[in-house]
Design brief:
Layout (H helix, E strand, L loop, with lengths): L4 H12 L13 H4 L7 H7 L2 H13 L8 H14 L2 E8 L7 E6 L1 E3 L5 E3 L3 H5 E2 L19 E5 L6 E3 L5 E11 L8 H21 L9 E14 H5 L2 H6 L24 H16 L4 E6 L5 E6 L2 E2 H21 L2 E4 L13 E9 L3 E2 L7 H27 L22 E2 L2 H11 L35 E3 L4 E3 L9 H27 L4 H16 L12 H8 L8 H4 L6 H9 L5 H54 L7 H27 L4 H27 L12 H6 L2
Parallel strand pairs: 1-8, 16-17
Antiparallel strand pairs: 1-2, 3-4, 5-6, 6-8, 7-8, 9-11, 9-12, 9-13, 9-14, 10-11, 14-15, 14-18, 17-18
Bound molecules: adenosine-5'-diphosphate and magnesium ion.
Amino acid sequence: MSGNAVRLQAIKDVEAFVPPAVSFDPGEEPGQIFGENVFSVSVMQKRLPKSVYKSVLATIEKSTPLDPLVADAVASAMKDWAMEKGATHYAHVFYPLTGLTAEKHDSFLDPVGDGTAFASFSGKTLIQGEPDASSFPNGGLRNTFEARGYTGWDVMSPAYVLENPNGNTLCIPTIFISMTGEALDHKTPVLRSQQAMAVHAKRVLQLFGHDEPENVVAYCGPEQEYFLVDSHFFLARPDLLNAGRTLFGAKPPKGQEFDDHYFGAIPERVLGFMMDTERELFKLGIPAKTRHNEVAPGQFEVAPMFERANEASDHQQLLMTTFKAIAKKHGMECLFHEKPFDGVNGSGKHVNFSLGNSELGSLLVPGDNPHDNAQFLVFCAAVIRAVHLYGGLLRVSVASASNDHRLGANEAPPAIISIFLGDQLADVFDQIAKGGATRSKEKGTLTIGVDTLPNLTKDPGDRNRTSPFAFTGNRFEFRAPGSNQTVAGPMVMINTIMAEALDHCATSLEAAVAAGTDFNEAVQTLLAEIVADHGAVIFNGNGYSQEWPVEAEQRGLKNLRTTVDALPELIAPEAIELFSKYGVFSEREMHSRYEIGLEQYVLSINVEANLTLEMGTTTVLPAATRYQTELAANIAALAAVGIEGDRTMLESVTTLVADLRSGLADLTTALGGLHDHEGIAEATFARDSVLPAMAATRAAADALEALVADDLWPLPTYQEMLYIL
Ligand code: ADP
Ligand code: MG
């Protein structure tokens, strides 16, 4: 059998694959199924007694504490509704620090002792669950023998029924905490930080004359990039299967240089997948909006409409699970790795965020009149302060071994956290810095004072794809989060640093007003101070340029290139002080997140390194040496009949085989030494010794891929994986 048999079979199977018909009723309106499987506010309104409904609604919309007395009524209505939808089980769904989604399933049926069972679901079971916490990462918060952990219902994120061929499940989004009340998940801090931000946002709004503002919430609209690969190729690549990315693979002759994939025609098969996923997402009440091809071949994007951060991050997790499941149904794998293919564009998750409420809309909309502008400028200035003071925390919120392949690795966006404001807004802040914004760029009216701050037109001006944190007209877009990660991490950071910045603004304005300063003047002073102190973070230039890191350093901005550089930000004294002050994380919780970050980093590199060793030794090396033998045999055969063969190819292959061997040997040594270290030293060793050995091994293997006879090459190539769908 030839060396490429597995690969050839995969190609044949891909070509023979008949995608399933999409279960799509052409007469069906999208609105008809939207939210069909969600225990939504409108379902509650229909099914709950009026007083119960009002009480729950107050919790959802005004964040008033949940009245435990209503829980039984809600639970009973929820169970009946779910059972009508075919649910047999319920699950508390939570988001442990592995970054994945965890579920604890229980049956509705309780045996009653006489051989029969009774469907029950009490308020207590709805509100609280008790999964074993010992197998989830806790970063030293618990000893394994202290296994108790609790899940608690997050009333603000709706329950839903998840369909499955083997039975449906009622899913209840929950927080996950230890017995001592420490957060073991991603949701708890989102809720805590949301609360902290709202307090100070409301203070600012009150200063602007909104006497009793509605609760301010953070909105998040995550754009999700992903790759699709045929399952047959995926299964023929141990690296994709086990690490989610290719650890070997030469760049295809036709890469993304042509940019012909971006917004190009979507392959029929992918369209079928997209229609199917959209339908499923709609049923779950997830408003998936746009779909188009991304820059790289095989890469696509989905962008659900923005929602409250908490709900958006639950939906985001559900979206990823749904995508993976439906891709499988269509004979494909959905890859959320940040860099599945080296040399090809990676995948991010752009977190669009704004603050607001239903009464005032987004507080980051410039608005039409000067008064709105002044309020908008204060919120915008708060963002500038927050990002300047705590850019390191934003950076660490997106740090992972896989995202390191994007950030700081010559790809969008850079690891330096700066803000892009666009020409118009940058100009306004420029004027403020110079003594007050007195005119708009176009109109040129000149009067002093906040009331005459220029009207801003709604158009955000140009876009800047190289900026990690860009103003886009009515929101900021944080472009650094990785494709695979929960948006909860970045949203916790954004909420918390905004809480601090808004607190600062409110305190300064309140003090000035109390001291008798004219409010407009106080605003002007505050804005000028923020621009003076924090304007260094504003950068409208090219974030990929060679000059930027140099300039950023002069400006005092951090360039935390790798996860190992970024993680210590979590335990810096300023960070610990910030998070305890606003009640988002205790010092212990910060340390636990730091430990988990290190642990996950090392774990991920360790797996990849072992895979590199295994594939290099058992797959690549044998193909290369076989070819080497063939070449040598050819030269010998020719020599026997008096012809001199060409030795250059043999020499090249021989050199590369030697390189590959020494790469593998170095990698073995590095891996052997990894666990001699601990904590940050172990992570540093992984970065500085293991990763380079992996890279050297790969370089030799990829060069061999370009030389070895195709009928000996065992692994599906980039060309095949990226272009055959
Ligand atoms: P682009 O590719 O131009 O950045 P998309 O339409 O792909 O834009 O995605 C924009 C994302 O921003 C969507 O998820 C959208 O819901 C979200 N978004 C729009 N307005 C807001 C807002 N005020 N706050 C938060 N997110 C928003
Ligand atoms: Mg975008």
